TrEMBL record:
Domain of life, source organism: Eukaryota
Keywords attached to this entry: Membrane, Transmembrane, Transmembrane helix
Membrane-spanning residues: 180-199, 206-226, 301-322, 521-542, 563-587, 599-618
Listed name of the protein: Transmembrane protein
Keyword Glycosyltransferase annotated: no
Species, as recorded: Effrenium voratum
Length: 653
């Protein structure tokens, strides 16, 4: 009976609360952005007097600071008025990435945690305090270094990793290399010679695990210890979230903020160009800074890089374990290769041992084919999607949650591109002087007079900005050589394990077994081989894998193509190891038994690999130059057609 009475009482209480809530509901907008993205509508109905507090009702989108939108955006030239009112503020990378960039998570709990409040049932006062805490953490400024543009549809963790890569990657690489150098110095100095690590189990943990651990620590947390950091503008921290009047003024001044930023960093995901507010930011930056001011950082790039590093770290770990636990584990597979190597290269154990050692590394890389396949497929598809979106860009198709906001935003963009100055300046840079035999157009008729300013912005994104993005990050098949070196950091550090660890054995024994006359010659030869393989052989795996995957998926996206693509990843790794094996073996031959023929064979192999590097890593520069030449004809043809259309329209009127 008591339990029944309690149930009835609770039902009556809940009914009364619901009726009261319908009469008097407060919707607080914990905005995840100021530009048409995800927001939280919090039910602060009269449960507050009873200390029963907000819950998330739904997730929607908003484009402006108020339900009815706003009427007018500020002109980017009106900075003095904005500065006097204290609307322009800046934050720091440390504040932005605090708590693993929790400000990018679009939940009320995350918003409160970012504001320093941890509670399950917050009051409205606590919500306001959290908002005040975040807003006051920013500072008034006249100019910011980086304006961060993003879509709230992208996940918090992808943005966190992307920003860590942007701010911390260089520091992480330096920390890893510095740690490695320090460890080598301490170990060799403490041990009393370069042979002290021969066969030691400390080589791999000290020379590989420790530097890679420092790399990841610096990658994730270096912004906390950086001295002078760039100032950043991001909507959640620099726009007040609970003061409607102040928020409305700041949102209206968004074009001013973009124009007063030295650079614009776009955290691209597949929804960025679909947001009208994002396009307004981009248009403002284009008008007042140009394409060179825009940096595009895809959010998939950091996960792809980290996956590659971890996969290779697993490979070198597996190789080292097998070498120590099962010294002859590869004999059944290597015997045939060894016999073949003896026939071609002679009966010296050096040739067989070198070829065997390098080919064994191929086998331990095969288990990483699956993560490599998944990460490379993601990279290929996401990169292609970015370029395809820009090639087919049309701002009229961008989404705006509140219809009332579309008019002011599009009007602002028309004002920015109404004169066609941006497009003309970029075309002039791309085309330069007229070619021989061409006639320079006389500007008696304004070509842009009859052109829709929004169409001018479309052409800017499809042409100038897209070319700039390709120059920054390449096309879908491009991977910068420097990025490849960072991705193979575990192999770079493991090379010192191989050299100083003397192939997991005493240095004197290893050098004698491989036919060297001294330990010094053995170590120098191994060092040079590793340097050559890391510089000209290992980086080739990445662009070759991408090309093989693209060729495979050009026949479809079915199960058969996926199996073939997976095998392509394994084949690319084997080809890389084969090239490294041949290069290393030939150099060893030259060092031990010098002859002109052997030296010539080594030089030919080295030249072939260098030419492949030039073609795969520098070829996109030549292709872009050829594309610019062809684009000149296309752009001029478009101008001719525009002139003809303008004259016809002028005559018709």
């Amino acid at each position: 009976m008591p339990s029944s009475l309690a149930s009835v009482a609770f039902s009556l209480w809940r009914t009364g609360v619901s009726v009261f809530a319908e009469q008097e509901t407060l919707a607080w907008e914990a905005c995840c952005g100021n530009r048409g993205d995800t927001c939280l509508f919090i039910d602060l109905s009269v449960l507050a007097p009873m200390q029963i507090f907000p819950r998330v009702l739904s997730k929607g989108s908003m484009a402006g600071p108020a339900a009815g939108g706003f009427h007018r955006l500020r002109n980017p030239d009106s900075f003095d008025e904005v500065r006097k009112s204290g609307l322009f503020r800046s934050s720091t990378p440390c504040q932005l990435l605090s708590r693993f960039a929790i400000v990018f998570q679009d939940t009320l709990e995350a918003f409160l945690l970012a504001g320093g409040i941890r509670t399950r049932f917050p009051t409205m006062q606590q919500v306001k305090l959290a908002s005040e805490f975040l807003f006051n953490a920013s500072a008034e400024t006249d100019i910011v270094d980086i304006f961060i543009g993003h879509s709230w549809s992208a996940g918090r963790w992808s943005k966190f990793l992307a920003l860590c890569m942007y701010f911390n990657l260089d520091i992480a690489v330096k920390c890893a290399c510095g740690t490695w150098l320090l460890v080598v110095t301490v170990l060799l100095g403490w041990g009393g010679g370069i042979t002290i690590l021969g066969g030691s189990c400390l080589a791999l943990p000290c020379l590989t695990y420790l530097p890679i651990s420092c790399f990841f620590l610096a990658f994730l947390f270096a912004h906390h210890i950086m001295g002078e950091t760039p100032s950043v503008w991001v909507d959640r921290l620099c726009i007040h979230q609970t003061n409607p009047d102040l928020k409305a003024k700041q949102v209206a001044a968004l074009p001013v903020f973009v124009a007063r930023s030295r650079r614009m960093l776009i955290l691209w995901d597949d929804t960025y160009f679909e947001r009208l507010w994002c396009n307004l930011e981009l248009a403002t930056c284009a008008r007042f800074g140009g394409a060179e001011k825009v940096e595009v950082l895809p959010v998939w790039l950091a996960p792809w890089l980290l996956t590659s590093i971890l996969s290779l770290l697993f490979s070198v770990t597996l190789f080292d374990i097998l070498e120590r636990v099962f010294p002859n584990w590869g004999a059944p597979w290597i015997e045939g290769i060894a016999n073949y190597a003896e026939v071609i290269l002679g009966e010296k154990q050096l040739f067989v041992a070198a070829f065997r050692t390098w080919m064994m590394s191929c086998l331990v890389q095969l288990p990483t084919s699956l993560p490599c396949f998944l990460s490379f497929r993601m990279k290929l598809r996401s990169h292609q999607l970015l370029l395809d979106q820009m090639a087919a860009f049309d701002v009229r198709n961008a989404k705006c949650t509140l219809p009332a906001d579309r008019g002011p935003i599009e009007q602002q963009m028309r004002e920015l591109f109404k004169d066609g100055d941006v497009l003309e300046d970029q075309e002039a840079k791309a085309t330069g002087d007229v070619d021989a035999g061409e006639v320079r157009l006389q500007r008696f008729v304004d070509v842009n007079y009859f052109r829709d300013p929004l169409q001018s912005f479309n052409l800017y994104v499809r042409g100038t900005l897209r070319d700039s993005v390709i120059a920054q990050i390449g096309d879908e098949l491009s991977v910068p050589w420097r990025t490849c070196l960072i991705a193979i950091l575990p192999m770079i550090f493991y090379s010192s394990v191989s050299v100083l660890g003397c192939d997991s054995g005493p240095c004197e024994t290893s050098s004698e077994l491989q036919g060297f006359v001294s330990v010094g010659q053995y170590m120098v030869t191994n060092s040079v081989v590793w340097v050559l393989c890391i510089a000209v052989a290992s980086p080739l795996t990445f662009p070759i894998t991408l090309r093989m995957l693209k060729f495979t998926f050009s026949f479809g996206d079915g199960p058969l193509q996926h199996v073939a693509a997976f095998l392509c990843c394994a084949l690319a790794s084997i080809c890389n190891c084969l090239c490294s094996s041949v290069l290393g073996t030939l150099f060893g031959v030259v060092m031990v038994e010098y002859s002109v023929k052997k030296l010539l064979a080594f030089v030919v192999m080295l030249v072939v690999l260098i030419m492949q590097n030039v073609w795969l890593f520098c070829g996109h520069i030549q292709r872009r130059s050829r594309n610019e030449i062809s684009c000149r004809c296309i752009k001029r043809q478009a101008v001719y057609e525009a002139v003809g259309g303008s004259l016809q329209a002028h005559d018709a009127t």
